[in-house]
C-alpha cells in the first residue's frame, strides 16, 4: 500500500456515541482578515485528506485547504465513519444518513472551537448529499453551503445507470474493494483528459494510503433511494456546482432541484472543462475561484 504523509495541519478527534471520528484542520493565515470557517465533506470513494489536502509536485495550490487558509479561512475536513482514520468496526454500510450524523458530531466539535460561528460547508458527490441533509437538519449551523457534483433524483444520470447494474452486489456486502485501477476509472468514465496523470497518480497514492475498501452505503442510496434531499427544506444560501462533463446528474435534474430552493440567495454554476472530481481537475483553480466568490459574497443591503 502506498504511503503518503500530510503535513502542516492539526489532527482532532471527536465522538459520535462511542464512534471515534477524525478531523483535520488547517487554520486561517494570521496576516489577512479572518474570512470564516469551512467544513469540506468528501465523497463515496475516498477519505477527506486525499480530496482536500492533496500535495502534487509541480501543481501550485494543489491543496484546496491551503489555498483557502491563506485567504483567511479556518479550514476543516473530516473522515466519515467507515473511511480513512475514523472508526470502521460497525457491521453497517455507512450510508448518507449516517454520514449526515457524522457531520452533526463534527460540526458541534468545530463550533466549540470557533466561537459558535455558523460554518461554510462544501460537499462533493455523495458528500454533497450528506452536507445537504445535515443542513436540512441543522440550518442554524450553516452560513452557506456549496453542493458540487450533486444529484437529486438521479434521472438522466449515465453514471448511476451504469452503477445500478451492480446494485445486488452492493446490497450483499457492507464494503467494496478499491485499487489504483478504480481510482483511474473516476477520471476516465465521463471525459478522459480533464485531469493530468501526475495528479491522478498522487490522488490514488493518497487514497490507497488510508483505505483498500470503501463502504457500499452511499452507492446503494444513490442507485436505489433518491431523492434523499427535499430542496424546499434546504433554506440556507446555496451554490450548486456542476462540472460540464460530470455524469453523476443531468442538467435538467439539477435545474429542477435549483428552482425549488426557497432561499433566493442561491447560485447555479456550470464549470467548464470539469468532469467529476473537480479539485483534481486541470481547471481546479477555476473551481476554487467559483467557491471563493460565493463564500465571500457581500451581505445583501436589501431583501425585499
From TrEMBL:
InterPro entries according to UniProt:
AB_hydrolase_1, AB_hydrolase_fold, Carboxylesterase_BioH, Hydrolase_4
Q: Which residues form the Serine aminopeptidase S33 domain?
A: 64-279
Record-given protein name: Alpha-beta hydrolase superfamily lysophospholipase
Q: Which Pfam families match?
A: Hydrolase_4
- One GO MF term: hydrolase activity
Entry keyword set: Hydrolase
**Coiled-coil residue spans:** none
Protein's UniProt keywords contain Glycosyltransferase: no
